[in-house]
């Protein structure tokens, strides 16, 4: 009866309520630290935060996911993980307070979170099986036990009156909680160190890699391909600035020595498994190719050009006996699978129609950065990345569009997605205040595998004026353009449109990115002083 009274009084004692909240947070910290430490023995992706985050990404509606990419860019994953931790902290506080009176209920709540984490880990496309549930379960058990102990911390026989109130040993609570926090921080640091050591072989393999000399080099970039206008994007996008849009909360780090690529499926008469050395010993080619993300809004930043080195995918498929559908082949879809379970589907016809579809291992003169797919990624000029640009690729399966829906198709995106003809004003920037007189309007336009034939600019509702095109590197790269404008004082709207080499004019019709890419004309508003 006395214990029940003490527990009831705890809900009326602000100090005990704070202690309960702290108990929940300390238990949650210990649970996370323990789970991350166990995950080092299983695999980092099995940790609860990563597993739950991945499950959240998988179940997020396409428009919401697109909104996150549009507004937060590559920081969307960091914000997601921060959001998970905030929600976890709030629930931990609630469970800690509940445990003041209902210790078993509070501990059971922690165990329930372990079930959620384990279920998320087992449901991931790259799950290795039941072991993936172990980190969440171990962490939840640690957290549940600690919450049960902390919430019921009794007064010791030697506690001073100021330290023991209603059977609660404040000094003992502080000592235990502090010790748990210190141990949790230590476990977390150790987990980070062990996870880092797991990736050291991958880092070493990348550092050792010397890119082979290409059997077919990219032609020198023509003089004049870079518009001499301040503010225009560089023709080649530096690796550190190249956009990254994917679902990987943890960037895979794969040792090139252990990497394998398997090619199999319908119409594959001679299945093939390649090591990294097998791939680089073939006749690599070097090509300049512009990539575009389907999440790129009109005028958006998710487009970039790099000089890639790799092996032509069509040659490997030929070696495997694959025949494109136009010549009677049974497979019309090539499904690329990543080590993290991502699947992307590309039309076999496009991959084998003569364009430079590559299995790339070099980017701008260096091995692929880990963030961009080391050791090997796939590139198909003229297709949006979500149907072609598989990073960390490990498997290629030949199948049909009717029999298999890849990751993004299951979530409402198109099965086929050629890059739309687009253009962008890089300078002047929106809401700029240039001075009256000659102002250079300039930017980039792209229509990969078709090429850009013309760019036009309109001021307000005036006539379209043809811009000066920079020299073309290839039809697979973007093309820069510029136009001198005699600016007059006041507010003005500048609009751009492009025409590709097929004669198709960039449409004015506005469309969002879902399901097959944004469309419309890019405009900027400026005020001339």
Q: Tell me the number of helical segments per DSSP (H or I, 4 or more residues long).
A: 13
In whole angstroms, how far apart are the ends?
81 Å
What structural class should be given to the helix and strand makeup?
alpha+beta
Strand order of the largest sheet: 4-3-12-7-8
Helix content: 25-40%
Q: Would you identify the regions where 5 or more consecutive residues have pLDDT less than 50? A: 154-165
- Shape estimate: globular
Query: Tally of extended strands?
Result: 20
Major sheet attributes: 5 strands, mixed
Name some characteristics of this structure.
alpha+beta; five-stranded antiparallel β-sheet; 529 residues; 34% helix; 13 helices; globular
Walkthrough of the structure:
The protein starts with a helix and ends with a strand. The protein is globular, with a radius of gyration of 29 Å. Strand 7 (333-338) and strand 8 form a beta hairpin. It is built from 13 helices and 20 strands. The chain has 529 residues and is an alpha+beta fold. The chain has helices spanning 2-10, 14-42, 48-59, 62-72, 76-98, 103-122, 134-151, 170-198, 200-208, 276-280, 313-319, 348-351, 407-410; strands spanning 164-165, 168-169, 260-265, 272-275, 285-292, 303-312, 333-338, 343-347, 358-363, 366-367, 377-379, 393-399, 422-427, 437-446, 452-459, 465-466, 468-469, 479-487, 490-500, 522-528. The strands form five sheets. A five-stranded mixed sheet has the order 4-3-12-7-8. Strands 5, 6, 9, 10 and 11 form a five-stranded antiparallel sheet that branches. A four-stranded antiparallel sheet has the order 13-14-18-17, with no helix packed on it. Helix 2 (14-42) packs across helix 5 (76-98).
């Amino acid at each position: 009866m006395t214990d029940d009274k003490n527990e009831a009084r705890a809900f009326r004692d602000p100090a005990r309520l704070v202690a309960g909240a702290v108990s929940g947070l300390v238990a949650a910290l210990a649970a996370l630290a323990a789970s991350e430490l166990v995950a080092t023995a299983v695999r980092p992706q099995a940790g609860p935060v990563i597993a739950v985050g991945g499950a959240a990404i998988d179940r997020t509606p396409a428009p919401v996911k697109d909104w996150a990419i549009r507004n937060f860019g590559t920081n969307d994953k960091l914000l997601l993980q921060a959001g998970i931790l905030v929600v976890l902290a709030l629930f931990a506080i609630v469970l800690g307070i509940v445990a003041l009176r209902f210790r078993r209920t509070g501990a059971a709540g922690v165990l329930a979170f372990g079930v959620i984490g384990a279920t998320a880990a087992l449901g991931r496309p790259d799950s290795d099986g039941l072991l993936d549930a172990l980190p969440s379960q171990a962490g939840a058990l640690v957290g549940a036990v600690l919450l049960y102990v902390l919430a019921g911390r009794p007064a010791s026989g030697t506690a001073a009156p100021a330290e023991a109130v209603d059977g609660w040993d404040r000094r003992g609570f502080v000592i235990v909680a502090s010790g748990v926090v210190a141990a949790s921080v230590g476990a977390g640091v150790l987990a980070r160190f062990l996870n880092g050591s797991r990736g050291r072989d991958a880092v070493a393999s990348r550092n050792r890699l010397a890119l082979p000399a290409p059997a077919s080099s990219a032609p020198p970039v023509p003089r004049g391909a870079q518009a001499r206008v301040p503010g225009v994007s560089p023709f080649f996008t530096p690796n550190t600035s190249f956009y990254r849009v994917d679902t990987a909360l943890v960037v895979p780090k794969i040792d090139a020595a252990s990497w394998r690529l398997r090619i199999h499926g319908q119409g594959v008469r001679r299945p093939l498994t390649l090591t990294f050395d097998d791939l680089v010993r073939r006749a690599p080619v070097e090509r300049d190719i512009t990539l575009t993300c389907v999440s790129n809004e009109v005028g958006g930043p998710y487009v970039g050009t790099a000089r890639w080195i790799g092996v032509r995918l069509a040659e490997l498929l030929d070696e495997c006996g694959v025949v494109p559908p136009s010549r009677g082949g049974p497979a019309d879809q090539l499904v690329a699978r990543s080590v993290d379970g991502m699947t992307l589907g590309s039309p076999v016809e496009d991959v084998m129609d003569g364009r430079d579809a590559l299995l790339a291992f070099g980017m701008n003169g260096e091995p692929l950065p880990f963030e961009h797919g080391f050791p090997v990624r796939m590139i198909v000029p003229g297709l949006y990345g979500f149907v072609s640009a598989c990073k960390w690729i490990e498997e290629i399966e030949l199948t049909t569009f009717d029999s298999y829906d890849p990751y993004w198709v299951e979530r409402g995106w198109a099965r086929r997605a050629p890059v739309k003809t687009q253009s962008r004003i890089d300078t002047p920037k929106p809401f700029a205040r240039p001075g009256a007189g000659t102002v250079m309007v300039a930017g980039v336009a792209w229509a990969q595998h078709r090429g850009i034939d013309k760019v036009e600019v309109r001021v307000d509702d005036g006539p379209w004026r043809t811009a000066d095109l920079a020299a073309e590197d290839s039809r697979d790269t973007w093309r820069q353009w510029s136009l001198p404008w005699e600016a007059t004082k006041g507010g003005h709207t500048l609009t751009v449109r492009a025409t590709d080499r097929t004669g198709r004019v960039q449409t004015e019709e506005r469309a969002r990115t879902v399901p097959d890419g944004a469309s419309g004309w890019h405009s900027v508003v400026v005020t001339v002083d």
